[in-house]
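pls design
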């Protein structure tokens, strides 16, 4: 599967990233992680901290799959509001999902504070803007729901938005506890830390097939095998090539990184900004003064049209950024298109599957992939260590997913 087209920004930010060998022998381990992106890297970090003998393989260079297209906005709020989660899953499960997302943000904050390679993790606030006047009622309802269940949020009216930003919207939710991160640096930093704890990592090493035995799994590659007690499949949207999740769907998303902007003083607190419209626009800044913007999700174009589509949609994104921030000399430096996956009910897939013994799947579908990967890494590490949580039921791979409002 071709995951990315165009020219992603993140590889330019880490010139001396680690490289790992190709697997050329037969090995064994406690846990094998297939996939060296964000989910795999977070899982490797937590597993090795528990002293669990871990191997990671990736068919590409690590961090160059979907993680390379990640815009690096980290939020406890979701594309599916807490109000909608409660309506879909019930009060207990809906609130629990948001609590897990909030706790995952705290876990990420703690983890990155101890990493040797700086992942450019910066705490941020978020501004969730009403795209139309009709969305104000929805934001007011969501504000009341979040407050009712103990989430720190403010409801801003037009006057307050205009007093802090150079644009006007009828209303917005202002939330705390979010962050921005460089996802490429984070993946490499997590894997670097895992290696120091004993993890073995192999790049350009593609799983050809697995045999599921009574006492574990044997993973075959073209040049070696790995026998593992447990396996975590963390291959992102390419999971659909292993098993078909009927509750999931794939499409294309777009992103740009501008050239550095000299003056971002009009961008209050450099908050993360996103919209109620679907598909929506999101924006953030970088430490060197760039603006990263993305969204405009749509059905995936024909393969021969994807690269030019990335350029065209990039111009559309730049125009939208300028509507929010009428800055001089806004220019695109990098533009890319990427495969993006979501589920009909708005939750990721995390956990075991009855057709794959001794295995777990980590499928961070949705716009909050890094936060979902943190939730998954924590739940799966606990399960492998013998302390399986009932929270896994919320993300069951065998649940019935139906379209629901966001």
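designed seq:
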């Amino acid at each position: 599967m071709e995951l990315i087209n165009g020219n992603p920004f993140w590889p330019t930010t880490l010139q001396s990233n680690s490289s790992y060998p190709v697997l050329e022998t037969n090995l064994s381990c406690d846990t094998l992680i297939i996939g060296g992106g964000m989910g795999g890297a977070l899982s490797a970090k937590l597993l090795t901290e528990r002293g669990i003998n871990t191997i990671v393989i990736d068919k590409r260079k690590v961090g160059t799959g979907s993680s390379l297209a990640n815009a690096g906005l980290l939020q406890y709020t979701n594309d599916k509001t807490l109000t909608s989660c409660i309506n879909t899953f019930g009060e207990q499960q809906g609130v629990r999902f948001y609590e897990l997302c909030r706790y995952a943000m705290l876990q990420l904050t703690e983890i990155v504070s101890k990493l040797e390679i700086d992942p450019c993790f910066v705490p941020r606030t978020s501004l969730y803007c009403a795209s139309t006047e009709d969305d104000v009622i929805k934001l007011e309802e969501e504000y009341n729901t979040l407050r009712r269940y103990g989430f720190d949020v403010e409801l801003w009216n037009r006057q307050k938005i205009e007093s802090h930003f150079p644009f006007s919207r009828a209303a917005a939710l202002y939330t705390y506890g979010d962050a921005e991160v460089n996802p490429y640096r984070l993946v490499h930093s997590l894997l670097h830390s895992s290696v120091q704890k004993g993890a073995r990592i192999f790049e350009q090493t593609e799983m050809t097939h697995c045999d599921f035995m009574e006492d574990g799994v044997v993973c075959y590659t073209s040049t070696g095998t790995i026998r593992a007690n447990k396996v975590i499949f963390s291959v992102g949207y390419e999971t659909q090539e292993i098993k078909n999740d009927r509750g999931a769907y794939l499409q294309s998303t777009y992103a740009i990184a501008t050239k550095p902007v000299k003056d971002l003083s009009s961008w209050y607190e450099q908050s993360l900004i996103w919209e109620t419209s679907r598909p929506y626009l999101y924006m953030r800044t970088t430490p060197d003064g760039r603006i990263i913007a993305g969204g405009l999700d749509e059905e995936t174009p024909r393969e021969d049209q994807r690269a030019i589509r990335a350029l065209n949609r990039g111009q559309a994104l730049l125009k939208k950024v300028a509507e929010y921030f009428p800055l001089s000399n806004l220019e695109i430096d990098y533009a890319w298109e990427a495969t993006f996956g979501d589920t009909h009910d708005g939750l990721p897939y995390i956990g075991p599957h009855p057709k794959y013994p001794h295995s777990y799947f980590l499928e961070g579908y949705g716009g909050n992939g890094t936060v979902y990967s943190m939730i998954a890494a924590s739940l799966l590490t606990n399960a492998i260590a013998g302390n399986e949580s009932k929270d896994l039921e919320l993300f069951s791979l065998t649940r019935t997913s139906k379209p629901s409002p966001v």
